[in-house]
Amino acid sequence: MRVKHEAPLINPDDKLADVLENIIGSRCRCGIVVSEDRIEGVINLMSIVRKIALEWIKGREPHETIERLYVRDVRYQPHIVFEEHVEPVSALMDMLTHGLDFVVKMDSDKYTVYTVLDALNDLVELLRGDHVGSVVSSQSWWVAYPDISVRDAFLQTSMLPTWRLIVIESDGSIRGIFSATDFLRAILRGERPYTEPISSFISTTTPKSVDYDEALVTAVKIMSLHNIYIMPVARGEKGFAGVVLAHDIGRLAAIRSLQSSSRELR
């Protein structure tokens, strides 16, 4: 397990507005909450998104929530801390079992993280011969249409294990990406695009996508390069065919690892 990314350390008494940009900008989209040299927990982007969404449903707009909350007000997420070397497949299976995007490695003076995307890079050879179509998800909850409001799109992301929605037209063509990270950055800049249609706040109009018949290793390389956990899948002239998720690729990599181990034991 090659740990590569140092995670931002935050204090439970920090104002959320003061640390949010650091969390959004980190590779793991998380912050390690440390008090008196002891790790108290982890908050990630999704825990923040869900807290803001819950407050929004109650009538408090996102900028009000961000300005009044402290780190300690956000629900800490489950986390796994390793102090010794762990094999990539073991770390990946722990992440998949517990629904995590990363595990934490504790060194003498810092905390670093090892993500699902890191594990996929380390195990990519197991996926040679597999294609995107074997893991594509066609579930409709990853999709939004251009005429829904930004508020509704944000609330939709709060119910998903990632913070992106694929925006598609009625003919199936991919319009772009709605990202909760870009939405929160806009709030920090003072923008208030709450009731506008999502078409006015598509953060990526030329999203990275992959073809249904493409090699799966290509999807892994694109997702790792751009640090994305969900990517739209196209199928020729038919347009949008679904999405590919890093965790679904991880499950296939874990299966391939078990199959490889089984062959070696024969």
Automatic annotation (TrEMBL):
InterPro entries: CBS_dom, CBS_dom_sf, Diverse_CBS-Domain. Keywords: CBS domain. The keyword Ribosomal protein does not apply. Residues 143-188 form the CBS domain. This is CBS domain containing protein. It comes from Pyrolobus fumarii (strain DSM 11204 / 1A).
